[in-house]
Structures are given as C-alpha cells and as structure tokens.
Protein: Peptide hydrolase
Amino acid sequence: MARILAITAGAACLANTASAASPPGKPWWDPDHDKGGWKHHGGWGWGGWGKPPKGHGPPGYPTATSAASPTGTAGGLPLVDSEALQASILEENLSEKALELQEAAYSTPNRNRVFSSPGHANTLDLITGYLDQYPDYFSYYRQPFTALYSQASGYFTVDGVNQSAAVFEYSPSGDVSAPFVAVNNLGCEAGDYPEEVDGAIALISRGECEFGLKSSLAGAAGAVAAVVYNNVEGTLGGGTLGEPPRPEGPYVPSLFTTLENGTAILNALDAGEVTGDLFVNSVIENRTTYNIIAQTVGGDQSNVLAVGGHSDSVFAGPGINDDGSGIIGILETALQLSSYSVNNAVRFCFWSAEEFGLLGSEHYVTNLNASEVEKIRLYLNFDMIASPNYMFGIYDGDGSAFNLSGPPGSAQAEAFFEDWFASNGLNSVPTEFSGRSDYGPFLDAGIPAGGLFTGAEVEKTEEEAALFGGTAGVAFDPNYHQVGDNYTNLNFEAFVANTKAIAAAVAEYGTSFESIPAGNSTTKVKRSPSGVKRRGSSHCNHDHPKELL
Structure:
C-alpha cells in the first residue's frame, strides 16, 4: 500500500506573466520577494538582500559580464571542446555522487528526498557544496517558493479482503463503508454518474481525463468516495488529483487500484451488490522549498542554454533514478565544464517540487519577464536517465511520432540527440513531448525544449528489447516511485551514455546557437493530449505515465 506518490498541482498560467516586463528599474529577480540567497564568489546576499553590485546578480540579471565579456570566463580557459568534455564524464564520478545522494536520503528518518524534508535539504546542500568549489566559474542562488504539500496513507477492502491501492495526492481524509457503483464510460462527464452513485463508492476507469476531474464529478454526484482502476496491466505509478479546489465539485476520498482489482469488482457487480470499506488519512499544508539556479559567469548572458532536472523524490523512496540520475548528470557536466570557457552562458537548474506538479519550474518561469524569457534560447530536461531496463528516449520535438511538437528549435534539439546516439552506435526512439515534466512550463512560454528519458513503469516491448537489450514485458523501471529506487536501481551503461549526451549538448549550444531559431516567446504551445486541458501543471508520462490521467 503506497503512502504517498508523485503529484501534480495547479499552478499559475504563464501567459500574462511571461509577456509582462518588470517595472522600470526593477530586475526580474526581486530581492524583496525571493530571499532564498544569491551566492557569488563565496558571499551570501548584499546589504540585507538588497540589489547586488554591478556584475553580480542572479542568472538573467543585467551584469558587467554580459556586456564586457560575452565569450569567456576569467583565467583564459580554452573554449569548450565537445569530445574532451564528453571524455571527462566518468562512471566513477557518477557512482560517487549517486551514493552521496542516497546517503542524503537514508540519513533521515523517512529515507526520502520529498520536497521540504530533511532529505531534500541535504540534497540542496550537496548540490551547492559542489558548486561552492568553483566560486569564480558559477554564480547561483536558491529561489524560494511556497508549495502545497500532501502526504497520505490509506486502503480499501472488498468483502474484508485488502486490495492493492495508492492514495491520490490531495485526496481528503475519510472512513467510509458503502456499496460500489460503476460509473459509465470513463467518468469524464457529469452525465456518466448515475443516480445510484449518491451515497456510494464510485468505481471509475482510468482514461481520457484527469483523476481530479473524476473525483470532483463523483463528489458533485454525491459519492462518498472514489476508486479509479487502471486501464493497463502493471504496477501502480501513483497519481494526483491536483491542487484543490475544482469548479466541478468537491474531492472525495480517492484511491487508485489495479486493472485486475477493478475488473474483479465489475464482475462481482454483475452478480449483485458489492460493499467496500475505504480509509484515507491525509495531511495537506503549505511548505517553503527552493529551486537552485546556477549559471556560468562567462558566456553571453543574453543567449542562454538552460538545462534542468528535479531535485525532489516521492515520499516512498530516495528517488536515485527519479530524478537523482538527472540532477547528477547535470551537476557532473557542470563541474567538468568548469575547465572551459563558453560563448553562450549555460544555466543549470535544479527544480524542487516537481513530484507535486512541476511547481518549481512553474514558479521559475512565471517569474521571468518577457526579456528574460527571450534570453533562454533552449531548455533541455533530464528526468530519469538511468532506468535499469532502459530505453534511450528523446523528446519528440518535431511531433513526427506523437503529433505534439514544441516551439521552433525543439525539432533541432531532437535532431541533435538523434545524431549523437547514432554517431555513437546507439539506438534511440522518440518519446512523447507532452509537456508533463519540467520542460512543460518552458514550452508554455514559447521556449524551445528537448531532453532525454529512459522510461518509467511502462513495460518494455519486444521491439524495444531488440533495440536496447533488457527484458520485454518488464517495466523500464520496476522501482519507479517505490522504496527500491536506490543506488542499486541504476543502470550505469545508460547513465554514462546519457550524461555524455548532456555534455555534448552543453558543448554544442554553449558554443553556438546557430542551429536554433531566434527566440520568439509569443509562440505558445498547448499541451492537451486526448483533448484534456492541462490543469496548472502535470507530468504524467515522465514523463510520468500514471499521475494526472
């Protein structure tokens, strides 16, 4: 029985914020709002968090570096060389940092890195501890924001037999005993809920629309609880209702169960009434957490490559693949980059509260003004790059595989990674560019994006096993969102290859954006697969396949 799983929460719409410039004389980074601490050359803040001195500010803040030294860093370092940077990516360094990240979780009572927890605080300190070793190369700051935290436990039984289930994030608490009533279709319309649902437990199939919509429609129909059953076989990857409230109706205590359990209850209903007992204990509260935003001091500060991954885990485990692998790959690339100069600034982003709905990346992007959005020429996302039964997945930026493309430049990012894998004798496949990981807010702001992904709980096909090895019929990551997502869950062949690909991309775009069209943040991209509007932020398909809908 899962206690807490990854979640998506409502977040602010980008349209107005991204297009609105900061007030005259005020930088996009507001020192009176984001008091998390800007650190440069070993010092925290200036003058009681006042305006930093000229030449030293958060990434995107107008600096002397951007005006006077657009093509290099102090010390006359050689321009980054792609082959040399890739060669510096070593398995032993990735392994060492993965063990350190695991210790960051295991040294705390809950042995996880969920946002605002001691394990997450250790994670942030681990990242900044490495950055502090290169004070003349990187500037960074901690960007605070408040996020709605949810932690829950629960179960349900049928005829006294406990059923495997996970509590949806943001589910209210409840303790009910009531008959099951099957909802018509997929439960995405008010008319799908028969009168008999009033006072009953609504049994709903997963599919087409958000879990939160199903729960709220059940509440509007008078249900006392809801059980959503999966529409594919396999383990449960977790889910979220999204941050309340919803206009359709109140949430009811809600659980997610397997296709097998749902089918068994449906079959039993054909023979007569089926009674269930359901219990949920939920804690929902606001908590403060932090993004870490680091940037090369050198390079053109008006032409920025941003790379990112999320620093938090789910409650169930330490998250060493999800997304420890991504942030370690990014961090190791950053540290090795410090031996070189760059023509374009490179921004390394470590997002918090991704597992609660892309909240860190949403907060960051919504607080950029239009001119700062324009400076980000490309965003690359790395979320789960060392899955044990891996594939080499590349976000489908041109939309040729899934009919969901990104802003101009996204196709070129996809092509870059395709060429890299091919040139290294490795197969790759497109993965859906749905906007459901931390690249989503960048797409919404019209910023081109790309990235890599090695798979979550979806089972590997025979065709994929032929391409990548591994075992067909087994999840890419059987420990996805589970206690077993630890150091032993990592596949280092995938980990090293993907980190070298990150290094290649950083070298490519840190040198030139010649292949990327000039920025146009007015080009918004709507992510609405299956006709479902993204409510705030979402990241099923991890892209996390079983979290929002």
